[in-house]
Each structure stands twice: as C-alpha cells, then as structure tokens.
Amino acid sequence: MADVAVLGAGSFGTCLAILCAGAHDVRLWARDPAMADTLQRERRNPRYLTDAAIPPRIRATSDLADALAGAELVICAVPSHGVRAAMAAARPHLREDALVVSTVKGIEIETGLTMHQVLAESLGPEHPRLVCLSGPSFAKEVAAGKPTVVTVASREERDAEAVQRALSCAALRCYRNTDVIGVELGGALKNVIAIAVGISDGLGLGHNARAALMTRGLAEITRLGVRLGASPITFLGLSGMGDLVLTCTGDLSRNRTVGLELGRGRKLPDILAGMKEVAEGVRTTRAACALAERTGVPMPIAAMVQDVLDGALEPADAVGKLMTRELKPEHV
Predict the structure, then answer these.
(1) Average pLDDT for 212-234
(2) Please, where are the H alpha helices in the chain?
C-alpha cells in the first residue's frame, strides 16, 4: 500500500507509524498542532516513546484531511472515548475503498458497543472495509523492533488478509481471524482483569492468587463473549489468553499499574493524575459490568474491580468477598 494514515500520536499510534514506515509512506495525525510540529521538526515524539526516532517516511500533521488524503490503509489509534468523534470527522476525507483498522482496546461506555461497532456507526455503509487489530503488544517493544505477534480480524477474510500482508514484517507477525466480536472483547476485557491482578499483587497476595484471577478472569471474558456471539476458541488465542498474560504480568502494563497502586492504598484520582497515558481498563470496567447486567452473565471479578474503582469497597475487602462467594462447579 502506497499511503498509510495513522490517526493518533500516542504510544501505539507512534509505534505503528514507525513500523509501517519500513515499507510505506506514512502520515501520522496528532490532534495537537504543537505535537505535530515537534514530531515533524525534531523527529521525536515529545510525550510518548520519546527515545524512538521518527523515520523520514513519516510525515506528522494535525490536519485530518491532509493525513487521510489518498490513504489506502487508515489505522485508528485514538483512545476509546475519542473514536466516535475522530472517525466522524474523518469520514468525509476517506477513500471509499480504504481499509480502516482499529487498534483500540475498549468498549464505549454510553452504548456498550465495541470499537468495530462504533466505527461501523460512525463511518456508515459506504465505508464497509473494517478490521480490528489486537494481541499482546506493548508499544515500546513494537517501536524497538522486538518480535510481536498479533491478530487482525474482519468479517471479510480478504480484508483481514490485506491488512495481514500490509503490516507483517520481520518484527511483526499477523494472524487473521473472522471472529471480530471475540477478538475485540478479548482485547478490551483483559484490561479489567489486569487491574484485578494488579490489586492482588499490590496487596502482596502472591502468585497463587495471580494465577487464580487470570484463570477465572478468562472464564468471565469467555462467558460474556460467547453470550454476545463470539467463539470460545478465540479467547484461547493471541487476543484472549495472549494479551491477558502480557497485560496482567508485564511491568509496562498501565492497567496493572493502576491495580498495583490501588492495592498499595492510593486513590484512583491520584493514580490517574500521575499517568501520561490512558488506562483503558478504568472505563472498560464500567462498560463490562453494564454488559454483564444486561446479558445476565456473572462477572464477579469485574464487579469487584468496579466497586474498588468507585471507592465502594477496599481492595482487601474485595478479595475476601470473592473468596467467600457461594461454592459452585468450575465449568458453569
């Protein structure tokens, strides 16, 4: 593909722009004109991945029409709460045949929609070529060229295959999938479980508790996903178990960091005030609990995380509440 547009100059947008610049001309859109100017002039991102060099084939801009002009591949890497507005603004400037890829791991709180569904509503039927990308992928490691393996999903396999070919390289291997809802839910909901694991680790509860939370957390994710039409096999793959393991155990995980600090006694507003990037799991927890209530799917770990985030329950009390729930068979 001759032209690639990346919308969002945060960590993941920047790392994907760097990766794509190995084979494509890339326009990186930053909402903030000052950031775009700095990126273009100094060839460094002033806020995220500050040690990563911006290759010559990347041109930074704050003009959305300029970023999208003629782009065959458009990658959306803005925070979940900004996807609807960003894509609505992008709509008039998109090529009709552009492939639009969402890398955003979240659920819209107001509607309970996944990012693929938000894109479909925002762009309308005239832009049907939608793909989502998910899997274990810390931006810092992608930008450094460390081996990373992800999944790209689309209801149209030919579109997933096109993105697979466009993005795969020596440092990034893409698999493809047609289970869009499963891939998206795995990528979004693992952030909720990562907060729970972080809380447990912050309380010093040990490896047994961590393993239990990850395993039972995956069970919650799978239950909800299957109820919403996903294949259970998807949650054993890169966008399910793979991303869950990374986000729950990796020191670069923002969501795990939120949980760690909660477990150590800090309050959520203070934690978030000190973070440069969005911890998507904070918003996703509320959306997940709303979906669980609407569908009748039990998600006790997500509910516990929500109570802790809301300040309705102390972290240690939340653990006790989970451990003393009614006894039941494992696979129900």
Answers:
(1) 98
(2) 11-20, 33-42, 64-68, 83-90, 115-123, 139-143, 157-167, 180-202, 206-227, 243-249, 254-263, 268-273, 280-295, 300-310, 315-323
- Cβ atoms within 10 Å of 202's Cβ, excluding its own: 20
- Phi and psi, residue 262, nearest 5°: -65, -45
Contact of 229 with 181, CB cutoff 8 Å: yes
The label of the residue with tokens 């969005």 reads 278
Instruction: Specify whether the backbone of 124 is left (phi greater than 0), alpha (psi in -120 to 50) or beta.
Output: left
Nearest alpha carbon to residue 190 among 236, 226, 221, 156:
221
Catalytic residue numbers, as ranges: 190
Give the CA distances from residue 84 to residues 79, 130, 214, in Å, rounded to whole numbers and listed in that order. Answer: 10, 14, 31
Structure confidence at residue 179 (pLDDT):
98
- Torsions phi, psi of 148, nearest 5? -135, 140
Residue 120 has pLDDT above 70, yes or no: yes
Q: What is the pLDDT of residues 288-297, one digit of tens each?
A: 999 999 999 9
Spatial contact of 310 and 286, defined as CB atoms under 8 Å apart: no
Q: One-letter amino acid identity for 156? A: E
Distance between CA atoms of residues 214 and 193, nearest Å: 7
Give the pLDDT score at 1.
58
pLDDT (tens digit per residue) in 258-283: 999 999 999 999 999 998 888 899 99
CB-based contact 226:161 (threshold 8 Å) = no
| For residue 16, pLDDT beyond 90 | yes
Question: Of the candidates 18, 194, 13, 193, which has an alpha carbon nearest to the alpha carbon of residue 103?
Answer: 13
What is the Cα gyration radius of the chain?
19
Residues forming beta bridges with residue 101, ordered by sequence position: 75, 131
What is the spatial distance between Cα 178 and Cα 158, in angstroms, rounded to a whole number?
A: 10
Distance CA(82)–CA(278), nearest Å, equals 11
Q: Which domains does the chain have, with CATH numbers?
A: 3-178 (3.40.50.720), 184-323 (1.10.1040.10)
